[in-house]
Specification:
This protein is of the alpha+beta class. It has 4 helices and 15 strands. It binds 2-amino-4-trifluoromethylsulfanyl-butyric acid and cobalt (II) ion (CO).
Amino acid sequence: MSRLTVKNAAEIAKMRAAGLIVRDALELLGRSAKAGVSTLELDAIAAEFLGSRGAKASFLGYNGYPASICASVNSQVVHGIPDGYKLREGDILSVDIGALKDGYHGDAARTFFIGRVADEARKLVEVTQECFFLGAAEAREGRHIADISRAVEAHARKHGYGVVRDLVGHGIGRDMHEPPEVPNFTDARIGRGLRLTKGMTLAIEPMINMGGWQVRQEANGWTVVTADGSLSAHYENTVAITDGEAEILTL
Ligand code: MF3
Ligand code: CO
C-alpha cells in the first residue's frame, strides 16, 4: 500500500509532464470518437499516442485490466472495457486514461458527445463538469477533503442527479492510487477528511448519474453500470495543491 505523499517542485514538474500527455490524449480521443468508431479502435489510438510521447498506459495490466483506456457508454459509469461496440449517434462516451511518464502518473476523464445528443444528456455532462470545477475551487491549502466532496455533491443534488458512492477520487503520484480518498459525497462517518497542504496531488473525479446513485458491477469484473439504467457522466482531472488555486495538471 502506498502512503500519502507531498510532492516538491521537481516532482510537480514531472506530474505536469504526465498530465499534459493525458490532456493531449483526451483531446485526440475526443476528436476520434465518432459514430461508427469502436471503443477498441479508440484504445488503439490511445496506446499508440502514449507510446509516441514516451509514456506508458497507467491502466494496462493494473489488477489485470486489459486495456489502455476505460470507455464507458451511456449507462456505464466507469471501467468500460474497450470492445467491438461501435459508437452511435446520440451516445455519451466517458473516456478515462492514465499516463505514466518519468515515474509519475496523470489521470483524467471526459464524457464526449457522439454526434447530436439529447438535451438532458448534454445537461448531465455539463453539470458533471461544473461539479469538478466547484470541487477543485475548494482544493486549497488549509481546506479539507470534505470541502471538495461537499461542493461536488451539492451541485449534483441541486440538479436532482445521483452521486456515485461506490467509487471515489484519490491521491496520485508515483502510484496511480495513493491516499487520500476523495469522495464525491459527504457523510458523518467519513468526517471532514485530511487537511490539504501544498504539494499534495489529487485526482478529483465526479461520477454523476441522471437517476439514482446506485450502481452494480457487470460480470466482466470491471464495468460499473447504473442500477436503474440511467445515463452516467464522468469528469476527472489531476490537480496539485498550491498556496493559491489548485493547478489543474491535465488541462
Ligand atoms: N482512472 C481510474 C481511477 O481513477 C482508474 C481506472 S481503473 C483501471 O481509479 F484499472 F482501469 F486502471
Ligand atoms: Co482516477
